[in-house]
């Protein structure tokens, strides 16, 4: 009688492969976050920007100088934060003479939230 081969566990693995199909790999390329949602999440990531966002409740329009004063920031920093919120679709702006006025962009915010919700429903 020939000596038996050492038990390597391969036999069990081979049996499992032949009897049970492997689970399908999830298709990660089917649903991805859009660049707009990435920008939206980045805009929300900062506590300073979160604080600034609250200044725009109820349709308030504010200039950079007003935001700087209300948020206790220097004007350059306020301007940077407003630009990030604008890139994220949270704020929109319009020019009135030489002054740029910012306000909440509810439509873009709602769209980003809907995209994020769809993504989360798919993945989680």
Strand count, sense and barrel status of the largest sheet are: 3 strands, antiparallel
Shape, principal axes of CA atoms: elongated
Share in β-strands: 5-15%
CATH architecture: Orthogonal Bundle
What is the overall pLDDT average?
A: 84
Structural write-up:
It comes from Nonomuraea mangrovi. This is ArsR/SmtB family transcription factor. InterPro entries: ArsR-like_HTH, HTH_ArsR_DNA-bd_dom, Metal_resp_trans_reg, WH-like_DNA-bd_sf, WH_DNA-bd_sf. By secondary structure, the protein is mainly α. The protein has one domain (33-119): Winged helix-like DNA-binding domain superfamily/Winged helix DNA-binding domain (Arc Repressor Mutant, subunit A, Orthogonal Bundle), CATH 1.10.10. The chain is 54% helix and 11% strand. The protein contains six helices and three strands; from the N terminus they run αααβααββα. The protein has helices at residues 10-19, 35-44, 47-54, 64-71, 75-87, 106-123; strands spanning 62-63, 91-96, 99-104. The chain has a three-stranded antiparallel beta sheet. Helix 2 packs antiparallel against helix 5 and helix 3 crosses helix 5. The longest helix is centred in the C-terminal third of the chain and has 18 residues, at 106-123. The radius of gyration is 26 Å and the shape is elongated. Mean pLDDT is 84; it is low at 12-23.
């Amino acid at each position: 009688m020939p000596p038996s081969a050492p038990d390597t566990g391969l036999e069990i693995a081979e049996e499992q492969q032949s009897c049970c199909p492997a689970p399908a790999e999830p298709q990660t390329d089917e649903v991805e976050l859009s660049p707009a949602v990435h920008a939206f999440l980045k805009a929300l990531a900062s506590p300073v920007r979160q604080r600034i966002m609250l200044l725009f409740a109820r349709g308030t329009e504010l200039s950079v100088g007003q935001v700087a004063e209300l948020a206790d920031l220097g004007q350059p920093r306020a301007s940077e934060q407003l630009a990030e919120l604008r890139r994220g679709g949270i704020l929109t702006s319009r020019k009135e003479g030489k002054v740029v006025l910012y306000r909440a962009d509810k439509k873009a915010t709602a769209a980003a939230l809907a995209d994020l919700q769809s993504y989360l429903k798919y993945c989680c």
